[in-house]
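Appendix C reproduces, verbatim, an entry submitted by the partner laboratory led by Prof. M.T., so that reviewers can inspect both the input and the predicted structure.
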Amino acid sequence: MAGQLRVVYYLNQFFGGIGGEEKANLPLEVRDGPIGPARPFQQLLGDQGQVVATIICGDNYFSEQREQALEQVTQALRSAQADLVVAGPAFDAGRYGLACGAVCAAAEEMGIPSVTAMHPENPGVLTYRRQVVIVPTGTSPVDLQDILANMHRLARKLAGGEELGPAQVEGYLGRGVRRVTEREAPGYKRAVDMLADKLNGRPFQSEVPFLTPEAVIPAPPVADLKQATIALISTGGLIPIGNPDRQVSGDPERYYTYPVEGLAALTAQDWEAFHGGYYNQIASDNPNYILPLSHLRKFEADGIVGRVAPEIITLPGVSTPVAKSKRLGAQMAQELKEAGVDACILVAT
């Protein structure tokens, strides 16, 4: 492409330097020039390009006002006469990753090349990897400079109209694109060589992509339910009416605990659902659908279980990356253990 590239960069409220979760409802705004990670990206561009605008939007706003946000993004790209769109990196932040993927997909539909970056377990990868070039990252910004360098290298190729090579060679996440290529050795020889390496304990690389699922050892059974304290956890987005703690509808950074001592059941007058992955009215009409306190109270009264824990745990599970889920789960387990809980019932949607 002749002349300087006109680059538009997308960031969420945190990387845009505006604030954290308390600013997640920030409406989309467009600022001139590079901001946040766009500044080191500008240094990588040098005199070959210019970050002419940075789009900043709160994660909640983009998630909850998606159509309006994408319309604003499209207008901003047209106004800036963008030659290239860069978004993120989003790392393992699910709402941010989904927004970055949506922005890049919108750019591609306009014929504007784009690139983003995020953790392979980010829900943005699952949603947009076939449409968008995504550079893999870790879970923290510690390698930001190297990630930006990879994004810049791929962005320059895309903006120049070059066809990218295989994902494992170029350093982006595979998009499921199959191309006819030639190998140095025929298939039968490669297969025999791999088998020989495997039988002899030598390292080998399979040609069939396969992600081995993690094996989770089940917990031992409760010895005596009649003496046990049972806790309730819901990933269905249960909140007190009016959402006083400003819980999010997906990809949470934390979970919330609420006292239920003395409550026979959850009522629609006091509780509702706020979750981005299902029709909330079902659970708002009967909150016990996503946290069955009423049923467990009956078991408690009948002597089937010893005691219901005095606090419940709630959060929205949708769009939460595996790494973050593990962290939140470990925190819950430690808290429940310290509270003397013997077992828990986790209700998912």
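The domain at 5-170 is CATH 3.40.50.2300 (Rossmann fold). Additional entries are available on request from the coordinating office.
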